[in-house]
Amino acid sequence: MLILVFSFDRNRFPSVPWGGFSLAWHQAIWTDSLVVDAFGIVLIATGTAIISTVLGFVAAYVDYRYRFRGQGVFVGLIAMPPAVPATILGMAMLAFLSRIGFSGRIDTIIACHVAVATSFSMAIIRLRLSEIGSELEQAAWKLGASRFRAIVSVVLPFCRQSLIASFFLAAAISFDEFMSWRRPPESSCG
Q1: What is the percent of the chain with per-residue pLDDT over 70, rounded to a whole number?
Q2: What domain range includes position 167?
């Protein structure tokens, strides 16, 4: 509580008597480049986690529910990014994005992180889907639920823990893979 009170103090260091009310220290936070960069990292990790979890669920559900020609190739393509060394994958993405003029943008960083994290999300969610009985979804259909309603009312609640785990794992992968999107400061040495 004292830290909160002294954060509004005009004095630089906590002291008694109180130096008066000021928002200067709160305003200084928003001009600090490290704090702004930290919020950018959180934004990127959150975007990556949301998109990877959604795509991972869709891919896992398609793999679980349907049988189709090329299913092995489908699963293999999704599982490939973690199998490629991060340095090679990162350099390939950077070369491609630089060539088309999209390198260093937040949306492209999120897209690259999603490409890596989605396979982990799919794996976690697919493991959970393997535990659901096919009769649960079929019972919902027989009771008049549409396929979409059955997914929302039966499958998603069943997968809740794996969706949460997928979200946090994708965010952690994004944090781990993150390199600053800002250019490093110019060196003043000669």
Answers
A1: 93
A2: 31-177
pTM of the model: 0.77
User: How many angstroms separate the CA atoms of 184 and 189, rounded?
Assistant: 14
Question: Are the beta carbons of 166 and 55 closer than 8 angstroms?
Answer: no
Give the up-direction half-sphere exposure of residue 99: CA atoms within 13 A in the CB hemisphere: 6
The verdict on residue 2 lying in a domain is no
What are the pLDDT digits (tens) for 42-81?
999 999 999 999 999 999 999 988 888 988 888 888 888 8
Task: Give domain status of residue 184, yes or no.
Answer: no
Name residues whose C-beta falls within 8 Å of residue 18's C-beta, 6 or more positions apart in sequence.
6, 9, 11
The secondary structure of 143-171 as a DSSP string is TT--HHHHIIIIIHHHTHHHHHHHHHHHH
Q: Say whether 9 sits in a helix, a strand or coil.
A: strand
Domain count, the chain: 1
- Kindly report the CATH number assigned to the domain that includes residue 102: 1.10.3720.10
Mean model confidence pLDDT for the chain:
84
| Residue 186 maps to a domain | no
Q: What is the pLDDT of residue 188?
A: 47
141 falls within a domain: yes
Nearest to 62 by CA among 122, 152, 119, 117: 122
